[in-house]
Amino acid sequence: MSNPPPLRDATPADLPLLYELFSDSLRFDLFSPALLEEKLFANPRPLDAPETGVNATRFGRGERYRVALMEDGRGAIGAVQVVSRPWEGRAWIGLFAVRSDARRRGVGRSLLESAIAHAVADGARTIDLLGIPGNYFAPALDPRYTAALCLLERLGFERNGDCSNLVADLAQLPAVGKDEQRLAEAGIEIRRATRNDDAILDAFFAEHFGAEWRFECELAMRNPVPALHLALRDRRAIAFSAHSSQNREWGFFGPMGTAPEARGSGCGRVLLIRCLADLEREGHATAIIPWVGPIGFYGRHVTCRVERVYWRLRRTLT
2: which DSSP letter? Predict the structure, then answer.
């Protein structure tokens, strides 16, 4: 196939085609059609939406999504997602796939070159692979997708670090009741967040962790039962832990963080276990702890192991 078929913009109506394509291509991953739709089309923070503009200071200014689809007479042969932040000069290649019987015919190169051109037209100075803020399927590339890795390197992407996911066993989580009592005696309240905490959360994230994590916590709050737990002292948040902001079918944990003043108090451990206990009650046997920083912290407090290692890839465009 020296001249691959033309691309067109995909829509949610194409989900059956896309699910067949990505299920064929992503052989190291299990996911439902609903999760694929979330990743490709459910932009949680559309750049041009009025509500995004109103909340830009709290949650960030948002992104633009595009999914391009290539077809032949038998269905979809390739697709690529590109996400851009024109205001920041950044873009991401999200999920992309080439049908297994259409590889080594220029389809993958055509898809990725189209995504890169779209990013450049939207003002991007760099383009990263995966790790889309607030809505990522994976934090970076699993190098077992070796054909994709080789193609990306030929197109000028360079490795700029690693990251890992842990999987935690939820069968025998430790009890934290006594720890919560000890913290209460020290003036630290542990509880589930409510909508009355919005101002407290805004102040905390403005000081410590920024709009990206504030937005992920907002997504966690949109669950039927808010999936955010807090540690507070004198009605000020000093630590938080969230889950189910995305990828809910996987039992997805995070983010979590503790203000410098509260580190070493033990509240992080309590908040972690409260979130994992939520996931266990929802029927999950395991939880994914993605894009992990302090692996040792999790290893000390719950039964977990490194499940996957990813390679971060970036190309400079200007």
Answer: -
Instruction: Tell me the residue ranges of DSSP E strands in the chain.
Output: 7-9, 64-72, 75-85, 90-98, 126-129, 158-169, 189-192, 228-233, 236-243, 253-258, 286-289, 304-316
> Taking the CA of residue 304 as centre, how many other CA atoms within 13 Å lie in the half-sphere pointing to its CB?
28
Q: What residue ranges define each of the domains in the chain, with the CATH number in brackets?
A: 7-157 (3.40.630.30), 168-310 (3.40.630.30)
Using a 10 angstrom Cβ sphere, with 0-12 exposed, 13-18 middle and 19 or more buried, the burial of residue 74 is exposed
Integer CA distances (angstroms), 252 to 220, 245, 249, in order: 10, 8, 8
Whole-model pTM: value is: 0.93
| pLDDT at 57 (0 to 100) | 83
- CB neighbourhood size of 293 (10 A): 12
Q: In this predicted model, what pLDDT tens digit does every residue of 90-104 receive, in sequence order?
A: 999 999 999 999 998
By percentage, how much of the chain surpasses pLDDT 90? 91
Top pLDDT among 121 and 74 is at 121
